[in-house]
Amino acid sequence: MGVQFNDLIPKKEISLKDLKNKTVAIDSMNILYQFLSSIRLRDGSPLRNSKGEITSTYNGIFYKNIYMLENDITPIWVFDGKPPELKHKTREERKKVKEKAMEEYISAKEEGNLEDMQKYAKRINYLEPKVVENSKRLLNLMGIPFINAPSEGEAQCSYMAKKGDVYAVVSQDYDALLYGAPRTVRNITASNKPLELIELDEVLGALNITLDNLIDMAILIGTDYNIGGVKGIGPKKALDIVKNNKMGEYIKNIENYEVIKNIFKHPKVTDEYSLKLGAPNIEELRKFLIDENNFSENRILPSLKKLEKIVNKKKSQTTIESWF
DNA sequence: GTCTCATG
DNA sequence: CATGAGACA
């Protein structure tokens, strides 16, 4: 979900060119959910293969990778590992929302209310473990590297950005800031949404606070580890509290404050990863998309050709060793 | 070239 | 979400 900082966070509008020849770490779960909720048929239901399995996610991964490679951006997909204990409550909460949406969807369907069907279908976005596994398979077939984070994917992305191994974290929410990511990029898409860059230094400078303050603000507003935060406190009041050194008055009423803070300040991350692109396996990729998941051949052929073309271009630019 | 729209 | 087609210019 992400902390609801809203428009308190200053962002810079950039162009795709600014990301040229850069490597970015993708907060995979965040983006995968994005695909799941937005890639839908008219009635609001997700894309599915003939076995009824959801394929919206594969569609998104396939096209977004090609889009980025085409623009000389190297994507590294980072997946979640074992979530911190405190996240369980969040998961239960989300599950409840989805169950309720499912009920609403069913009743809208009974009424034949298409508008409501769309509305509620979009909330039923549960990412099956199998879909996540297949997403990794798809990345392998495309030659795109992915990393299994030990814990939160966002923390791993941020760590890599801090180290300078990647230029920025790609996510739609602002939580990477809390893990100290120097840059977060939003809206890498072919649609005409403005591409946004959020810089940690800019954020702290504009608000005139420290990273520690920002984390405290997040905890006041509410994070994945203390949903809802402190009652009655939003971004504005939170900023006022940390700026006027009044955090101490709230800490005692926040359950697990120290534990939550520690999750952001010292997350579990790994140094074991490779950022190298590999050669795609076009034949197997075809099978995965067309045979296994019923993508229309006519439709993906131009993109497959594009992928091959990009690979050949890269091969001619780099030595064989650095490519493989 | 740029935009909107329907489609998967 | 990305794509292609079609409108418009």
UniProtKB/TrEMBL annotation:
Region ranges (Interaction with PCNA): 316-324
Enzyme Commission identifier(s): 3.1.-.-
Residue numbers binding Mg(2+) 1: 27, 80, 152, 154
Domain XPG-I: 140-209
Amino-acid positions noted as binding Mg(2+) 2 in the UniProt annotation, renumbered to this chain: 173, 175, 224
Highest taxon of the lineage: Archaea
Gene Ontology biological-process entries: DNA repair; DNA replication, removal of RNA primer
Listed InterPro entries: 5-3_exonuclease_C_sf, Flap_endonuc, Flap_endonuc_arc, HhH2, PIN-like_dom_sf, XPG-I_dom, XPG/Rad2, XPG_DNA_repair_N
NCBIfam families per the UniProt record, alphabetical: fen_arch
Record-given protein name: Flap endonuclease 1
Originating organism: Methanothermococcus okinawensis (strain DSM 14208 / JCM 11175 / IH1)
